[in-house]
Amino acid sequence: MEHNAESPKEQEQPPFEEAIRRLEQVVKDLESGDKTLDEALALYEEGKQLSALCDRYLQQAELKLKQWDDDAAEAVEASAEASSV
Questions:
Q1: CA angle 82–84–85, rounded 5-degree value
Q2: What domains appear along the chain, each with residue ranges and CATH number?
Q3: pLDDT 10s digits, 45-84
């Protein structure tokens, strides 16, 4: 049996691009002003969740980029040390 490291909740998450498109639609729907209070509240809650999800995606991407930069800097440093010997 193969073990998947993602939790069921993570597997249900839409990809970043889909989440950001839906967030944009939620904002447009709220800005239209033609929603009932209950509909507007539900949209607002959905928007908060989508915003948090997109923020997590961006934080993860930022961490990956930082790791790649750190790895590249270490490789350059190691190369410089090897060539100076």
A1: 70
A2: 14-84 (1.10.287)
A3: 999 999 999 999 999 999 999 999 988 888 888 877 777 7
